[in-house]
Amino acid sequence: MSASQIPPILTNLTTGMLVGERIAESRRTVGDLVGYWSDPEAARQGGDALLYGTQTWMPAEDGVEGAILWGNTVLMPGSVGGEFFMTRGHWHEKLDRCEMCVTVSGSGLLVLMDESRNTWVEQMSPGSTHYVPGNLAHRTVNTGDEPLVFMCAWPADCGHNYGSILELGFGRRFFVGDQF
Amino acid sequence: MSASQIPPILTNLTTGMLVGERIAESRRTVGDLVGYWSDPEAARQGGDALLYGTQTWMPAEDGVEGAILWGNTVLMPGSVGGEFFMTRGHWHEKLDRCEMCVTVSGSGLLVLMDESRNTWVEQMSPGSTHYVPGNLAHRTVNTGDEPLVFMCAWPADCGHNYGSILELGFGRRFFVGDQF
């Protein structure tokens, strides 16, 4: 098999799950994000609870210009100190590299923030398809009572910057009982 | 609304259809591809029959570096002079720009060809997810008896080169009754 022959994988478009070769998996617990929550002590207490899992198909290496990576996120329902379960969120290091996401199941919010910290949301529901321009930080929040499952495609060379999110957060947090 | 705020669209993950703003549509008939078939005369006779339709979501302009476009193709079942219905196929002008495709329904072939005209196929069936490295020409062929529906994501700046396919074709054609 030459480098030009990448074995296909299977994407289950009902569940969002990927099966095949070159699939990287990760999982994060509530405690893994302790510094991201408004109530870090509550996060420490809920430490081991699964927050989200991801699968990423890597037909090319991370960082390769012109390649697209494809993966899912399963963000569990729940809250920490009243704050809905969320992903860390990130900036792209290359600020012209976009991201495209399709919701498979569940309901929630795609939170977008510009460089002036203006923050707004897009509603995520089955089939909703979102475009994140490269110059916006983005995070997802599960506001429903079932897992929020979505697929994303992104340029392999976008780079990920989590640091400033840990330090400054987004311009808005999302608590149980709020209106969005 | 700023340029950073692109309205989400809906992707029906069961049918592959897109609904929303900034969606470009196209359709090709058997006759539109007259020069691509092994039997151009048969293609002229079947001229008005729908061959395939596409929808492309354009959250960014074609050609923008770092942007990803997302769209579907519905390739009808059928044959022309015994040759299975197919798309034109193309090269990317930028030979490091990949393409990623997910089959929604139907069955067929993703035909890949390198610069030495070596040609091979990947089987397409529901959920099959394919990575086309940027240096390979690619075409799809519907070998089933229902529409072959698939979604693709590609870099907006990949560029499309159809000319050499019209002139030279692929290294292999796919006829009813062949084994693939």
CATH C-level of chain A: Mainly Beta
Mean pLDDT over the residues of chain A: 95
Major sheet description of chain A: 6 strands, antiparallel
Order of strands across the widest beta sheet of chain A?
3-4-5-14-9-12
How would you describe the oligomerization state of the chains in this entry?
homodimer
Structure characterization notes:
The structure is a homodimer of 180-residue chains. Chain A starts with 8 loop residues before the first strand and ends in a 12-residue tail after the last helix. The first copy, chain A, has one domain: Jelly Rolls (Sandwich), CATH 2.60.120.10. Chain A has helices at 40-45, 163-168, and strands spanning 9-11, 18-19, 23-29, 50-57, 68-75, 79-80, 83-84, 91-92, 99-105, 108-113, 119-124, 128-132, 137-142, 148-155, 160-161. Chain A is globular. Chain A is mainly beta and 180 residues long. Chain A has a 6-stranded antiparallel sheet with strand order 3-4-5-14-9-12, with no helix packed on it. The first copy, chain A, has a 3-stranded antiparallel sheet with strand order 11-10-13, with no helix packed on it. A two-stranded antiparallel ribbon of chain A has the order 1-2. At the A-B interface, strand 1, strand 9, strand 11, strand 12 and strand 14 of A face strand 1, strand 9, strand 11, strand 12 and strand 14 of B.
